[in-house]
Amino acid sequence: MSGRLTIAGLGPGAEDLVTPEVRAALATATDIVGYIPYVARIAPRPGLTLHPSDNRVELDRSRHALEMAAAGRQVVVVSSGDPGVFAMASAVFEAVEAAPEYLSLDIRVLPGITAMLAAAAAAGAPLGHDFCCINLSDNLKPWELVEHRLRLAAQADFAMAFYNPRSKSRPHQFARALEILRAECGSARLITFARAVTTPEQAIRTVTLGEATPEMADMRTVVLVGNAATKRLGPWVYTPRSAGGVV
Ligand code: SAH
Predict the structure, then answer these.
(1) HSE-up of 7 (CA within 13 Å, CB side)?
(2) Which amino acids bring their CB within 6 angstroms of ligand 1?
(3) For burial by CB atoms within 10 Å, which of 23, 74, 212, 240 has the most?
(4) Mind listing the pLDDT tens digit of every residue in the chain (247 residues)?
């Protein structure tokens, strides 16, 4: 059998949310490559080699996966959620661009359920109108760009989803993000903190921007902010489908 490189999304955590297509790719894999906690989700079996690696080594990891696929192995690179959302798919293509001989490889990208969609479903429908999605980490872009996009998205009255909101290495930036949001959206705007969605530790909490504190988010949290029309309905939060906002 000739080699193949599959880049697969494992979904937000629940086994039921791994797609049948991804399950099939995992079942025929010879090698699984990815960040340690994601590879830990794959059950070991004879004939399968697990290659967990540390965070922030995406390019090395991609090159290794490409080398193994070129040598004839059935390699699956795993990401949590969807592999195209702040994850491994782009890293693999970046590695291919640097070594175009790999363009002849059999490469497939298999989608997964990304955190913001699982979080939105758990909360109701906070992303039910136009929305945007911003990675708050300045690991791969300047913080000024994060602030700029945040401000413009808020001014455009998008509902918003924030990935990587807060980590131990950058504890202050999320406080700054909340400040910007309060200034642009007002303190009554709804914000949902969705932690460890679809896992046994799932916790969903909706407050107003006035009540929100930076400690409500960590690296296992995806944060959803409503648009001007987003409201509570019993235990739910939803954004009407009709156009709201001010132009
Ligand atoms: N590719 C992933 C995102 C990777 S970035 C996806 O599509 O979901 C990592 C960030 O995703 C985390 O900091 C957090 O903001 C979010 N995240 C991933 N899984 C999550 C979950 N189960 N619950 C809440 N947030 C999650």
Answers:
(1) 21
(2) 12-13, 79-82, 85-87, 114-115, 119, 163-165, 194-199, 219-222
(3) 212
(4) 689 999 999 999 999 999 999 999 999 999 999 999 999 999 999 999 999 999 878 999 999 999 999 999 999 999 999 999 999 999 999 999 999 999 999 999 999 999 999 999 999 999 999 999 999 998 889 999 999 999 999 999 999 999 999 987 877 899 999 999 999 999 999 999 999 999 999 999 999 999 999 999 999 999 999 999 999 999 999 999 997 655 5
Same domain, 136 and 215: yes
What is the span of the domain harbouring residue 31?
4-113
Most distant CA atoms of the chain, gap in Å: 60
Instruction: Let me know if residue 43 belongs to a domain.
Output: yes
Number of domains in the chain: 2
pTM: 0.96
Instruction: Name the helix (H) or strand (E) containing 24.
Output: helix 20-27
Nearest atom within ligand 1 for CA of residue 13: 22
Atom of ligand 1 nearest to the CA of 116: 8
* CATH number of residue 210's parent domain: 3.30.950.10
- Residue among 15, 35, 82, 86 to mutate when testing ligand 1 (max atoms within 8 A of CB): 86
Question: In testing the pocket of ligand 1, which one of 116, 197, 220 has its CB within 8 Å of the most ligand atoms?
Answer: 220
The closest-lying atom of ligand 1 relative to the alpha carbon of residue 115 is: 8
Please, are residues 163 and 136 in contact by the beta-carbon 8 Å criterion? yes
Is there a domain that residue 233 lies in?
yes
